[in-house]
Amino acid sequence: MVAVAPVTLLRTEGLRRAFGGLQAVRGVNLDLAPGEIRAIIGPNGAGKTTLVGMISGRVAPSAGRVLFRGRDITRLPAHDRVMLGIVYTFQIMSIYRALPVFDNLALPVQRRLMRTALDRLALDPRAVARGVEAALERIGLQDAAAQPAGALPYGHQRLLDIAMALALDPEILILDEPTQGLAPDEIARLLGLIRHIASGVTIVLIEHNMQVVLEVAQRVTVMDAGRVLAEGTPAEIEANPDVQRVYLGQ
Amino acid sequence: MLTVEGLQCGYGEALVLHGVSLRLAPGQVLGLLGRNGAGKTTTLRAIMGLLRPRTGRIALDGRDLATLPPYEIPRLGIAYVPQGRGLFPFLTVEENLRMGLFVRDGDPRRLEWIFELFPVLRERLRQRAGTLSGGEQQMVATARALAADPRYLLMDEPLEGLMPLLVETLLGVIGQLRARGVGVLLVEQRIDAALRAADEVALLEVGRIRYQGTAAALAADPEMLQTYLGVRRDRRHE
After folding, report:
1. Which of A74, A149, A172, B31 could make an SS bond with B198 (beta carbons 3.0 to 4.6 A apart)?
2. CB–CB of B237 and A184 under 8 A?
3. What is the dihedral of CA A154, B157, B5, B227, to 10 degrees?
4. Which of residues 145-164 of A touch B (CB under 8 A)?
5. Domain of A167: which CATH number?
6. Whole-model pTM?
């Protein structure tokens, strides 16, 4: 038998979600290839966060299916999807503000190590510390390990949030507006980080900073009013008159 | 005139501002720029009375603000768009906007102008603010501050989460406010946008103002942009 690498890592079929009378997502079909960097853009309120919420399992669809490696995971809760490797970072941060930066990172590192540890009680604190140090180094916050996370400047809190997600060693990493609150040089560092991890991780990036989208994304999906308005390469999307009208304002 | 003189301020033991001085005139847009941790948000919080200065003076038309309780400051005509929006998530959009109106005279006619600026908010009036998308929440935070009909407006990264079209809308709003004689103190990480909106800029570094000048002069000085803001000449991410 010949093993064939799957062309589609994650697929959504006719995904819908209503909140009361508001149709946030109205039938979205999406195919993610392994290792791609996919940007999702669109007007504020287009349904981007709701869509990735259904992919990560935080939001239950009203209709449609989510398939991961061909397996139907539509009913799988978010924490089980994390164990499969589907990890989401919130647009609004979810760090433990009162805990030191080190402890914030130790939590996901432990969780990752537990996936493979035979005996959970035998989890080696030195292995956790090594994992935390590697995660700190990725984001350049080595000097901040002992500080309470809530005392970090806002932009660094966002980097910590992403580092926590990365420490889970995801297969699909969903980043919801990761450049918010970052200074230009921090954005450059984050882009370097995204490119670096993209060799082994599929990245879904919700982002309004078009320069960032143009620079890192391989494909772009444009949502408007709960539907896919367009999909293509960054250059195709930038030149699309519909996208210019509803989103770019050119 | 809103003036800050020799402001020292911090949290617990840590001093964040080491003597910051600023002047904001009516109809002026002053960009307050600097890296994360430089003290931009702390400066805004101190002006709003949310942090007490250790030393230094904050005054509106000569009147000392530093001794006033925080709720008095918006009533004097200083409105604030906090970073991270600071909405009341369980109140509706309309109720959040009424909070803004309530700070002054409560005149709902001001909402009409706000709906012209952000038409989508009219459709969202009955929706709880916490259920809006991130960018929509940002619009509500700005709209709530505008509902207070401010003479001075302090904005902490108001472009965060806004789509490109709305970034242009908001820059247009700032221009309209300037034309109406409102003084705007704009903290922003999108340096290109800030330089377009601002007349003057002040660069903060580790709690000190390192540079003050026109936005045009800073825009033409790549070395300064690189040193204090981390903006590279060849590659800007705005």
Report:
1. B31
2. yes
3. 70
4. 151-156
5. 3.40.50.300
6. 0.81
